[in-house]
Each structure stands twice: as C-alpha cells, then as structure tokens.
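TASK: fixed-backbone design
INPUT:
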C-alpha cells in the first residue's frame, strides 16, 4: 500500500440535543475527516475523534489538524507499507497524538478493505454480523428530563443505558433511575470526576446493581483504580487510562478494572484496538466500544471494530438520528427494535459517503500529495 494523497476537512455538525459530561456541554461538533488515496485512485475515509478542547484528553481538533498537516501526513505520503496494519509504524517518532494518527490509520483500513472488495469488519477479523447497542445519556437539566429520555431510549430497543455522573449529580440520580427502571442494564460514567476520597459514595453505588462504573478516578491512573476496585462489588471499567495494549495488560495485572472500554481514537487505530481486544479477551476481561459523538464515518469504523470476538457488551454505537438531523453517510446508521446494528455487507465501511453534504459542512480543507 502506498498513500499518494491525503485530504483533510473540518466539518461542523450541530447536535439535535446538547450532550453534557463532567467536562462541560457540547452543542456542536467540530470534526476532522481524513480521506486517503492510493496510486490507483482508491480511497478510504477516517475520522479524528478529538474534541473541541483538550478536556477528555490532551488532544483537540486544532492540535490534531496541525500535527496531521505538519508531521503525520508527510510521514505517510509516498511511503510503502505491506498493509494497513503497518501504517501506525510510520508515525512511531511522534509521541501520543493517537486520535490524529487513528484518522489516517483507519482511513487506510477502509481503503484496503475496499480494494479487496470485502467489508471492513470482516477484514479486521470480526466474528459477529450483528452487534448489541447501548446509549450514552449526558447530564440533563433536570432529573425528570433524564428519566423521560431513558424511557424513550428503552422504547427504541437499546439494550443498555449509560448515564453520566459528576459530584452533585450521582447517587441520588442513580437511586431515582433505578427506582423507575429496576431491571434495566444500567451503568454510570464519571469521566475522571472523583478521587479516592469519594470512595464512600462510590461504594454506596454497589446497592443499585450497576453493570459498571466507568473511569471514576484520574484519566491517567491505574494504581488508585486498583485500590478502589478492591473496595467495590461493582466492576470498574477503564476508559481514558487504557491507551494501548500495554496499558491494558498493566491494568489487568494490577486489578484496576474488570471491564475495558475501547475507543479507536484513544488507542490510535484498528491495529492497536485489535491488540487491546486480544489482551483483554485472553485475560477474561470483556470489552465494549465507546463513543465520541462521531459522525457516520467514525460510527461506521466503530461498527467494524465492535464485531471483534472480545466485544461482548453493548457499546455506545447508536443510531445516527440520536445525534444528527442528517448524517454524512447513507444509509444512516439504524438500530433494530431489539437494540442491534447489522454490520454492512458492502466493501470497506459499507456506507456511501455523502460528498455534497460534507462539502456543504466544510469550514476548512487542505490536500497534500506525495512529491
């Protein structure tokens, strides 16, 4: 494989409803899309999942744009690699910046699968043509709004409900949700909002039968999570703390978690995501696919990843209509009444890219070619 052209585009997509976490409230997504072309004109699409600011991680869209333009694109243009699995090696000299790297790397996987004429999910080694779906519900203005939103999502068939929590919006909220919905698969996500000093409150959540508590402590911590996990019956799920297969191995050995959330951007692309999945699967740790408010391109990449064997829990991959009035792929991602998504049969991502829609949403673009 030889990449001869890389096109970067920033698009802006307004959410149909704001999404709030302990980091703040998002109403519009600034999204960096990457399109790669090889010498025969075949193309692949990827998406950088970095946020508008450096809050979930140190990466953010403007930084990702610059590191891609100045370093990652020049490192990959005109370079031959045996397969998409080796693209990440081209970026070895650049530390971190995994979300920016993943945008190019996942685009190369789409290109390679398209050229082979096979669905990306099968090319990655996926084993299930239908994946279970859950939803992530942000912090709402009122508890009643949260309860009503959960009821609507359950009516749409979603198999698992995740609610965001933060200090002051935690135990009482969970108690009310569990009282209203005693039998649903329920989990909470703290996005690093707590410390070990909050262990008594976190222990109190044991009584509500949660599937897991996601990333309660610091974004780069494993040791304190291990201390906390020993105090809890509820499984801890690590998100931000696992950026590689090596991180996953260390977390498992420490006993820092019993579940891992895998995000393509956070780990740097499909090759590393497969390694994380394998480490966890061989250790008996279930994994699931987390979401970053992706457009349809990033969502399609997530669908492909979530077909891997170790992804045994419902992920955050939900219907396009939950986020966007109109997506940038067609058909939009749809969820069945039983809360599942069918992996597409077409080659590559398996969705048609809506180029006119992308063009209309573009606020800046840059194309780089091999010399």
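OUTPUT:
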């Amino acid at each position: 494989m030889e990449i001869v052209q890389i096109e970067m585009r920033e698009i802006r997509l307004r959410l149909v409803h704001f999404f709030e976490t302990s980091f703040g409230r998002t109403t519009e997504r600034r999204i960096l899309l990457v399109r790669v072309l090889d010498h025969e004109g075949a193309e692949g699409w990827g998406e950088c999942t970095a946020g508008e600011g450096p809050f979930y991680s140190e990466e953010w869209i403007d930084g990702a744009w610059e590191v891609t333009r100045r370093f990652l694109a020049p490192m990959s243009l005109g370079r031959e690699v045996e397969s998409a699995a080796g693209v990440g090696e081209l970026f070895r000299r650049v530390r971190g910046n995994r979300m920016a790297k993943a945008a190019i790397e996942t685009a190369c996987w789409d290109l390679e699968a398209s050229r082979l004429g096979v669905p990306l999910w099968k090319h990655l080694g996926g084993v299930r043509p239908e994946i279970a779906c859950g939803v992530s519900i942000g912090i709402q203005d009122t508890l009643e709004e949260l309860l009503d939103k959960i009821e609507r999502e359950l009516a749409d068939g979603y198999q698992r409900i995740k609610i965001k929590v933060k200090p002051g919006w935690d135990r009482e909220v969970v108690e009310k949700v569990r009282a209203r919905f005693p039998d649903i698969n329920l989990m909470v996500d703290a996005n690093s909002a707590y410390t070990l000093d909050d262990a008594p409150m976190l222990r109190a959540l044991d009584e509500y039968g949660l599937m897991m508590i996601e990333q309660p402590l610091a974004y780069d911590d494993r040791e304190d999570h291990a201390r906390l996990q020993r105090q809890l019956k509820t499984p801890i799920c690590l998100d931000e703390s696992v950026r590689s297969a090596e991180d996953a191995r260390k977390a498992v050995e420490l006993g820092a978690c019993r579940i891992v959330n895998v995000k393509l951007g956070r780990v740097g692309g499909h090759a590393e995501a497969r390694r994380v999945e394998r480490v966890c699967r061989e250790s008996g740790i279930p994994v699931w696919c987390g979401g970053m408010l992706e457009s349809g391109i990033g969502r399609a990449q997530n669908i492909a990843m979530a077909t891997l064997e170790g992804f045994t829990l419902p992920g955050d991959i939900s219907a396009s209509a939950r986020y966007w009035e109109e997506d940038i792929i067609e058909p939009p991602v749809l969820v069945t009444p039983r809360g599942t998504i069918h992996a597409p049969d077409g080659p590559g991502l398996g969705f048609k890219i809506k180029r006119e829609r992308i063009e209309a949403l573009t606020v800046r673009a840059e194309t780089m070619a091999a010399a």
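COMMENT: The chain has twelve helices and 15 strands.
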